[in-house]
Amino acid sequence: MGKMEEFITKQTCQGANKVFPAPPPIPGPATNCRRKGSLMKNGSAIRGNNCAATATRALWDRLFDGGYKTDVIIKTDNGGIICAHSNILGMASPVLRGMLKQAKGFGHRRPISIHIHGVPQDAVRAFIRFLYSSSYEKEEMKEFVLPLLVMSHTYVVPQLKRACEQQLEHGLLTIENVVDAFQLSLLCDAPRLTLITHRMIVMTCKAVRETEGWKAMKKSNPALEKELLESMMDEEHERDIMMQKEKNRKSNEQRIYLQLCEAMEALVHIFRDGCRTIGPHDKDLKEHQTPCDYGDCCKGLELLVRHFASCKLRVPGGCIHCKRMWQLLELHSRLCTDSNSCRVPLCRNLKEKIRKQSKKDEIKWKILVKRILRTKRIGGAPIFVSSNSNSSP
């Protein structure tokens, strides 16, 4: 990262005000212009990202590779030299255009020398090639995506900058390079990449803190490390809160489903065996009965049944208590396996009604029944007693 930062801070120039128009399209029939992801054209492989027609792109590549009448020498680290054409560089990058004008203003003779240091020579070569043909090799992008991001920002080549950000977002971002990519996104004004890399660092904090990139950042930028550590702590705290909320939600759901299970059992018990003051018409209730196993649930259901029998607003929706009773009766009918001999009121009638319900309502009820049955198995609630049995609980 030291060379990267040095590279960004040292590249300064004054851009020219004149903007050259884009060249006109090649005359002739329409050509097939393929962008990234289009790797084949007329049976031959093309580079990973192509923003020009294949024939035109090949022409620009030959011009760059052949070095025909070049007038610019680009010097890189370790004495590397790349030859280029000033007109193409100036049209592709306003920063390079300003540097070339500045060099001419100082009376430099051709060829003009430009220095690009801090990045590998092959990365510089891939960058210059993109200025010619608006294309890049897939392997070069994979190896030099971070240096290409820096150069695209420094020399104002937005097309390449977008390509680098997209490639990082869709596969080239790794645990090893995410810290470097995060720091470069801050320096290169790439807010979306900053958000993505920051999120990845926070979510994979343990692995990231073992990388060389993190150790280098710790030495060179301790303030940034502190901010990231605070973000990690906040994220961990937020994750704990969310996990606790989810745990509470599941616990509440489990309790509700268990209560529904007990209510269904108590409903069958009341109309099959009788309890306290309510029971089947063919059975005499004793004055003094031993308390049943369903306790308050059974008592509450008895009160609800008595209200349901005497309420004048029994139509569903007219009374909140009656509506609750209708729902309990319908839920029972969906769980009951033998409606013909069932003693719970309206069980058979509701079975017929269920067949005429809308698909949307049917799905909701099926989900509820499924969850109740699953809760019964997990929570250890008793199996529903057969409602036509004559045995006492």
Molecular structure report:
This protein has 16 helices and 7 strands. By secondary structure, it is mainly alpha-helical. The protein has a domain at 250-281 and 289-378: CREB-binding Protein, Chain A (Up-down Bundle). The protein has a 3-stranded mixed sheet with strand order 5-4-6. It has a two-stranded antiparallel sheet with strand order 1-2. The longest helix has 52 residues, at 222-273.
Q: How would the blueprint of this fold be written?
A:
Blueprint: H1 2-10, E1 40-41, E2 44-45, E3 49-50, H2 54-66, E4 72-75, E5 81-84, H3 86-92, H4 94-105, E6 112-115, H5 121-133, E7 135-136, H6 138-154, H7 158-172, H8 178-187, H9 191-203, H10 205-208, H11 212-220, H12 222-273, H13 295-310, H14 320-335, H15 347-354, H16 359-379
Key features of this structure:
393 residues; mainly alpha; CREB-binding Protein, Chain A; two-stranded antiparallel ribbon; 16 helices; 7 strands; disordered C terminus
